[in-house]
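Need a sequence for this fold. Nothing fancy.
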């Protein structure tokens, strides 16, 4: 038996040699010497085909690859294998981490000038997966992502701050407009009353002067209340206001405040009632601030509701303290605005115009008063069903 294609292949090789003529080959075949020659050539071919494995060394290949890869500034792990044309690796000529032909990064013939060994191929693999890539550029990627997220966060914060400043600017503009209106109206009334007093016909009639003087006094008090309210809010914005606690008798002290609003409620076609639950008690509150807070709630209940509205001030004595609730069955406040009504300068919207002039400071002031007394202010309301504001204050807040 003859390897590498048998005698036919060796015969073709022999004929292709330039130093052997065809007539000599035929003569050798007739003389019987051709078979001996074919066997000798076949043995030499076998030695050459099996001998290429002795010309290479696995360690040498790995060392040479490492040197070349290092020169290219590639730091990822690599693997190699010497294979045949079908990608089958020779057992002793491959690295342990070689993963097969499917993941080959580069390949090249190992003996390109040798016709008998031209099918021997060197395959190289690089471990360039996601984990390796992250190891190579991990810190750079992390810093880039961190920088991007930081810039995005700063942009969101800046945008929110811009919206807040725009909203605050609009509120301050509304406040200045309302403040101007609230001061201009009583000042105009005072001016008109003063002109009437100076009129010759009025000055000659003492009876006509008295109501004009009362008008001037009433408008003066109105201006003074506005100024005091703005000053109180200014002090609260600077870190709170000092409390001057005095001993107050309940419910007589609260009933006195309600009685001052009864005539106004009747004149506007509204009903104001007072109800007290519990026994009499003495509390230590700041008379001025708590009184102003209750008056603010009563003003809102009367100002923002139409004629026919029922307003109730209920005083409840609790073991934990005192609850003062101002409740009405008027227009109410929508759920969307309930968390905004305690913000400074905010006013509940009624279309494009505010039906009642004001500063948008009242409820914010009431909340600050409650907090200063270690209490709280809450709201329960719905559109068209009225509103109930409840001040919860400890007896010795």
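Here you go.
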């Amino acid at each position: 038996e003859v390897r590498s294609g048998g005698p036919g292949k060796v015969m073709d090789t022999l004929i292709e040699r330039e130093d052997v003529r065809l007539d000599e080959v035929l003569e050798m075949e007739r003389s019987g010497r051709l078979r001996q020659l074919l066997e000798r050539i076949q043995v030499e071919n076998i030695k050459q085909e099996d001998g290429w494995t002795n010309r290479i060394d696995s360690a040498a290949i790995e060392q040479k690859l490492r040197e070349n890869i290092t020169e290219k500034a590639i730091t990822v792990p690599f693997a190699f294998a010497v294979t045949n044309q079908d990608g089958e690796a020779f057992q002793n000529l491959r690295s342990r981490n070689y993963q097969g032909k499917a993941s080959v990064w580069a390949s090249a013939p190992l003996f390109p000038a040798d016709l008998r060994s031209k099918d021997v191929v060197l395959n190289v693999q690089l471990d360039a997966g996601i984990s390796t890539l992250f190891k190579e550029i991990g810190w750079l990627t992390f810093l880039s992502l961190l920088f991007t997220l930081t810039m995005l966060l700063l942009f969101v914060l800046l945008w929110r701050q811009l919206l807040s400043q725009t909203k605050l600017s609009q509120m301050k503009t509304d406040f200045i407009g309302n403040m101007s209106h609230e001061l201009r109206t009583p000042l105009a009334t005072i001016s008109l009353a003063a002109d009437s007093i100076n009129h010759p016909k009025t000055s000659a009639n003492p009876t006509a002067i008295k109501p004009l003087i009362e008008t001037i006094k009433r408008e003066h008090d109105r201006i003074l209340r506005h100024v005091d309210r703005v000053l109180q809010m200014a002090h609260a914005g600077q870190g709170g206001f000092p409390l001057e606690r005095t001993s107050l008798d309940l419910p007589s002290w609260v009933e006195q405040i309600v009685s001052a609003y009864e005539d106004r409620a009747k004149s506007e076609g509204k009903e104001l009632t007072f109800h007290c639950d519990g026994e009499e008690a003495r509390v230590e509150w700041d008379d001025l601030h708590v009184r102003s807070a209750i008056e603010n709630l009563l003003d809102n209940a009367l100002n923002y509701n139409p004629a026919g509205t029922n307003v109730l001030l209920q005083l409840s004595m609790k073991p934990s303290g005192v609850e003062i609730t101002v409740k009405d069955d008027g227009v109410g406040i929508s759920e969307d605005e309930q968390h905004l009504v305690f913000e400074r300068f905010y006013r509940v919207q009624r279309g494009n115009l505010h039906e009642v002039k004001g500063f948008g400071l009242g409820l914010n002031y009431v909340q600050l008063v409650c907090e200063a007394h270690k209490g709280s202010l809450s709201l329960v309301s719905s559109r068209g069903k009225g509103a109930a504001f409840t001040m919860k204050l400890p007896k010795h807040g």
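For context: Residues 1-11, 46-50 have pLDDT under 50 and may be disordered.
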